[in-house]
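Batch manifest line 392
LIGAND: pyridoxal-5'-phosphate
JOB: complex structure
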Amino acid sequence: MKPRTRVNHPPHTPLPPGNQPLVAPIYQSVKFELESLAAAERAWAAHGHGFHYSRVANPTVADLEALLAELQGQAACVAVGTGLAAVATTLLALLSAGDHVLGFVETYGPTRGLFVRTLARFGVTHTLLSIEDRAGIERVLAERPTRLVWFESPTNPVLKIADIGHLVATAHRHGALTAIDNTFAGFESHGDLGVDLYVHSLTKYASGHGDVMGGAVIGSAEHVRTVRLQATALGPALDPHAAFLVQRGLRTYHVRRAAQCETAARIAEVLQRDPRVLRVRYPGLPADPGHVLARKQMRDFGTVLCIDLAGTAEQSRIFADTLKLFAIAASLGSTESLIVPPPLLQPRDLTAEQRLSSGIGPTTARLSIGLEDPDDLLADLGAALDAAFAAR
Ligand SMILES: Cc1ncc(COP(=O)(O)O)c(C=O)c1O
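JOB STATUS: finished
ARTIFACT:
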């Protein structure tokens, strides 16, 4: 064989039996060959058996899917390229022309955009309520045949807590499916509450280091099969290298999250006592309206908090610009702390009335707590408050 041929048919080193790597290899291969045409025909006939093309299935991605299903306490999972791809694929898998979705104002903006801009083009209608509007939820589900109730808890960005037991029971009583974007709550919360599908952005806590994107849809084998078929048709596959990085991130998921939750609780506690802060929203604070429900439903209270400064929009700008350890950046769940300042948080797609119920005010900022030393974060926040209020 000439060198030019050999480099395209390189040697493989088979592993001796009983001698496996401790960290699974990355199957960074688009194609999987079968030993003969007959074997290929048998594999293709037994649909879903083996691997042939990584857009459809890949062993590294399959390892991650099995782990995520287990973490969320469900039977199955399909992983895709981003969190928003997980949202969109789920919606497109479950909904058809003529269906109605119940969604909420307190939902990640691009998800709302899918209801309002994308699904509407395909004849799917929606109602947007506030997650706090229990009477409205009952009324809409009683009045309108609804295929799907889509919600978050804690909600992005102001961390309202949905009464999940009530929501799921009401939806199911009226024949609707339920899906939760469980990104903020993490993998250990809500698995026992009977939601049909759990969607996550793996870009956040799962990978944890802000260097890879991914999404997952987790639930019963039947629901996940429906979503997987849609994913196969649309093609939002997770790259095996990304799947490997998410798996690596998951090795420290629990310790990272526990440390970040502890720091978030301490910061929330300190800021709520500071007169320059009008309001702190963090479900771990006993005074928070969602605290009792969160204590019942969640394993922890999360790593994100929202603050409203007792000042002007200009003072909020000075606050954000003075912070040294909180990067002005989107996302959450990374090792470094982040802030989304008020101008970047405004839900511009909502009506005035919906904006009011969204709970986002002129000085509301979202803080995502990282793994830095809590004393340094508190000192940074204190210095930024001093700067914002000295300028008054
Ligand atoms: C609650 C929530 N869901 C979904 C997403 C989308 O995830 P991704 O950025 O991985 O597409 C985000 C991103 O911020 C989010 O906050």
